From TrEMBL:
<dbReference type="InterPro" id="IPR037151">
    <property type="entry name" value="AlkB-like_sf"/>
</dbReference>
<protein>
    <recommendedName>
        <fullName>Fe2OG dioxygenase domain-containing protein</fullName>
    </recommendedName>
</protein>
<keyword id="KW-0479">Metal-binding</keyword>
<dbReference type="Pfam" id="PF13532">
    <property type="entry name" value="2OG-FeII_Oxy_2"/>
</dbReference>
<dbReference type="InterPro" id="IPR005123">
    <property type="entry name" value="Oxoglu/Fe-dep_dioxygenase_dom"/>
</dbReference>
<keyword id="KW-0560">Oxidoreductase</keyword>
<keyword id="KW-0408">Iron</keyword>
<keyword id="KW-0223">Dioxygenase</keyword>
<dbReference type="InterPro" id="IPR004574">
    <property type="entry name" value="Alkb"/>
</dbReference>
<dbReference type="InterPro" id="IPR027450">
    <property type="entry name" value="AlkB-like"/>
</dbReference>
<feature type="domain" description="Fe2OG dioxygenase">
    <location>
        <begin position="292"/>
        <end position="411"/>
    </location>
</feature>
Length: 420
């Protein structure tokens, strides 16, 4: 038996022996769902997980990978046609503003975006989680790793940034202990100046980080910033660092997805609930012209990684579509309501799927990723003789990875914050 499964089994039996019967009752419905899907043992039951790939015979092979499959009808959904594409869209009467475009990206496009994420994007001037702790080479951790692979004599040691962390060292205070579930203040057009005025110190480098080779650091790559810089400590954007344009490749995919959707079918159909769009009114009517992404993140998940329940509420545009692209291994995506007390819906996201979170309800709903599904890398991301040089290196990395490109609009199109 796989040693990690053995360990998971041991931990499971130990935990049920020690569990007092009321611990579970303290978990919010969202937390309980996270726990259920995260467990390696017993493996989670996916019969309540929506799996739209099962509706497309072209995806048969993908849906069999790793033995993981959900159900095509686990969640009430409605098919909508897309304007300029052969693919379909799905909307959900219980989560107005959520749109899923299964296999929206061609196999070729998926490969291109994997290549872009690793080789072109995860390097300066875009910040990555590794930059907090290490002095990374300008080519970024992926290209340094690839160079070593082709010629071991090029192996470099990446030095830590370790500094003496005295009081007043100009870094954020380090908080030890479990991560707190602290909610940040939602950004609005009226509190924007106040939030923008808060001092945002850089995160403190780890004092224990050691000189490391690229192959040691690569599996620790967790995110690379897109566009406006995000400050994790305050969970607000730091506009003082300037703006990096969202790469055309990404902007085009996102705009294409937003324009392919007939928003009237999403927000103005017979079954759509009346939503509170605030003073701005139903902004969806002009998204074809006003949607313009300016921030985001590329998330790199190894199969053991999870993303806790959260709301993306740092953007001034509170209803504008958030476009989320899945690549590589499949994942369970949970989406609930305005608090963790709403039972979340579970959706299986596979490589090439695009999720759009939009409107006043869905855009600020709790969501998270409790599980990456092992052995679900589709065959079209495995080696083939065409295109990218040394794809086998990408394939090897992607066997245990899911990439998510999560793209947002912070400001209305054309708006430039004061003093930037
Ligand atoms: O990985 C995903 O599908 C979601 C990522 C996400 O929610 C985020 O980056 O805020
Ligand atoms: Fe998110």
């Amino acid at each position: 038996m796989d040693p990690s499964l053995k360990k998971a089994k041991r931990q499971y039996f130990k935990s049920i022996r020690n569990r007092s019967s009321d611990i579970q009752n303290d978990w919010s419905p969202f937390r309980a769902a996270e726990k259920r899907f995260k467990a390696k043992f017993p493996p989670p039951d996916l019969s309540t997980v929506l799996d739209l790939a099962l509706l497309n015979p072209d995806r048969d092979q993908e849906a069999k990978a790793g033995g993981w499959a959900g159900r095509p009808d686990a969640l009430k959904s409605r098919e909508v046609s897309l304007s300029d594409s052969k693919t379909k869209g799905y909307i959900f009467p219980d989560i107005p503003g959520l749109v899923i475009l299964p296999s929206f990206l061609s196999h070729q496009k998926q490969k291109e975006l994997v290549y872009w994420s690793l080789s072109e994007h995860a390097k300066q001037p875009n910040e990555t989680n590794l930059d907090i702790h290490y002095i990374l080479p300008p080519e970024g951790v992926w290209n340094a790793y690839a160079a070593t692979k082709s010629d071991p004599s090029l192996e470099i040691q990446i030095k830590p940034k370790s500094v003496a962390l005295d009081a007043g060292s100009g870094y954020e205070e380090q908080v030890s202990g479990p991560r707190q579930l602290i909610n940040n203040t939602p950004a609005t057009s009226t509190n924007f100046d106040t939030l923008n005025g808060i001092t945002k110190l850089p995160a403190a480098p780890s004092p224990t980080a050691q000189p490391s080779s690229p192959s040691i650091l690569l599996p620790k790559l967790r995110w690379a910033n897109i566009g406006w810089f995000y400050h994790w400590g305050t969970k607000q954007y730091d506009f003082t660092k300037g703006k990096i344009e969202v790469h055309n490749k990404i902007r085009d995919v996102c705009r294409h997805a937003v324009r392919a959707v007939d928003w009237k079918q999403v927000f103005d159909n017979d079954n759509a609930p009346q939503l509170d769009w605030g003073d701005a009114g139903p902004e969806w009517t002009s998204w074809n012209e006003t949607y313009e992404p300016d921030a985001g993140i590329v998330n790199f998940y190894q199969t053991k990684d999870t993303l806790m329940a959260h709301v993306d509420r740092s953007e001034v545009c509170a209803t504008s579509p958030l476009v989320s692209i899945s690549l590589g291994n499949a994942a369970i995506f949970l989406i609930g309501g305005q608090t963790r007390d709403t039972e979340p819906a579970a959706i299986l996201l596979r490589s090439g799927d695009v999720v759009i979170m939009s409107g006043p309800v869905c855009r600020r709903a709790y969501h998270g990723v409790p599980r990456i599904l092992e052995n679900t890398l589709p065959s079209h991301l495995r080696c083939s003789d065409d295109d990218v040089d040394n794809w086998s290196l990408y394939e090897e990395y992607m066997k245990t990875t899911r990439i998510n490109i999560n793209v947002r609009q912070v400001f209305p199109k054309g708006f430039v914050p004061d003093g930037i």
